[in-house]
Amino acid sequence: MLKAGVLGAGHLGKIHLKLLQQSDAYELIGFYDANPKASEAIEKEFGYKSFPSMDALINACDMVDVVTPTIHHFECAKKVLEAGKHLFIEKPITHTVEEANIIRDLAKKHKVRGQVGQVERFNPAFMAVNHMIKNPMFIEAHRLAEFNPRGTDVSVVLDLMIHDIDAILSVVNSEVKEIHAGGVAVISETPDIANARIEFENGCVANLTASRISMKKMRKARFFQKDAYISVDFLEKKCEVVKMKDAPENPDDFAMILTNAEGVKKQIYFDNPEVDSNNAILDELESFANAINTDTTPVVSLGQGAEALRIAMKIIESFKTV
């Protein structure tokens, strides 16, 4: 088993500690948090070993899980990689694109693995259909959340929209051509609601909306491609696939047939894959263990994390020109 430690024991850090302790792929060594009182309380309540310093924890581990506030990601990740340890780091990978590129290059230099915590890649609804998403030409995503002060240290783009940016980049095999976006700060000092239109070189267009001041939660994405429509509900963990094929000469009485303006008849049919229940955070952590043990590329590599951040920052920059 890989010896694992956690840097940062806040809300999400506690979840990671619990799952690493449960996992058969890791041996949880302990954690380090900059708040001594919080560390003492967590150690007392849960029994996790608290380390006196970041360096002490890193030296005791094979893999370090960074779950600190984003502003500290670069400092922590740099120490982990320079110590020759494998790195799991929560999204967004770092505070700036320059930092993300340095982290990516450090992992290569020290020949260690790194994965970014983009948990929606492991959402069972997305996993059930992502192999069916082939050459989408229009994508629409809505990610709405109720206001929570936790996470408002960054823009809603880095807090919420980056999940959809990463998912979309994973299925669109093309470079980004142009971005148009707008954002509004309502409660926070940074935008709380944002919309972005991403145009790709191959003609695909993605329209993304994210809000953290909504009355209800929503996490949905729809993918439109030739002869197919695929819907993913990340919140409810449901998916729907609607496909079209050339209509048979003698369709049965219950067949749904459409005729276009050119007189071509198409039959509509539904293909709703089975969605297996899972713990997405546990799955992403264990998939990283598998990548380390088999010396393969992680599902969400540091390079992919850096690219998602680059696009997110382009969206934020475009706010200033609106």
Tell me about this structure.
With 322 residues, the chain is of the alpha/beta class. It has a domain at 2-120 and 281-299: NAD(P)-binding Rossmann-like Domain (Rossmann fold), CATH 3.40.50.720. The protein is built from 9 helices and 14 strands. It has helices spanning 11-22, 36-46, 54-59, 73-82, 97-109, 124-129, 156-171, 280-294, 302-319; strands at 2-7, 26-32, 63-66, 86-90, 114-117, 138-144, 176-184, 193-200, 205-211, 218-225, 228-233, 238-246, 256-259, 265-270. The chain has a 9-stranded mixed β-sheet. A 5-stranded parallel β-sheet has the order 2-1-3-4-5, sandwiched between helices. Helix 5 links the parallel strand 4 (86-90) and strand 5. Helix 7 crosses helix 9 (302-319). 39% of the residues are buried. The mean pLDDT is 93.
What does the secondary structure layout of this molecule look like, with pairings?
Blueprint: E1 2-7, H1 11-22, E2 26-32, H2 36-46, H3 54-59, E3 63-66, H4 73-82, E4 86-90, H5 97-109, E5 114-117, H6 124-129, E6 138-144, H7 156-171, E7 176-184, E8 193-200, E9 205-211, E10 218-225, E11 228-233, E12 238-246, E13 256-259, E14 265-270, H8 280-294, H9 302-319
Parallel strand pairs: 1-2, 1-3, 3-4, 4-5, 6-9
Antiparallel strand pairs: 6-10, 7-8, 8-9, 10-11, 11-12, 12-14, 13-14
Helix pairs in contact: 4-5, 5-9, 7-9
Rounded radius of gyration (Å):
22 Å
Instruction: List the helices and strands in order.
Output: EHEHHEHEHEHEHEEEEEEEEHH
Shape: globular
Chain oligomer state: single chain
Average per-residue pLDDT, rounded, comes to 93
Looking at the overall shape, the CATH architecture of the domain at 2-120 and 281-299 is 3-Layer(aba) Sandwich
Largest sheet composition:
9 strands, mixed
Portion of residues in helices?
25-40%
Q: What CATH first level of the domain at 2-120 and 281-299 would be assigned?
A: Alpha Beta
CATH superfamily annotation of the domain at 2-120 and 281-299 = NAD(P)-binding Rossmann-like Domain
Query: Spans with pLDDT under 50 lasting ≥5 residues?
Result: none
The count of helical stretches stands at 9
CATH topology of the domain at 2-120 and 281-299: Rossmann fold
Number of strands: 14
- Measured by DSSP, the beta-strand proportion falls in 25-35%
Please report the distance between the alpha carbons of the first and last residues. 51 Å
Helix- and strand-based class? alpha/beta
Strand order, biggest sheet? 7-8-9-6-10-11-12-14-13
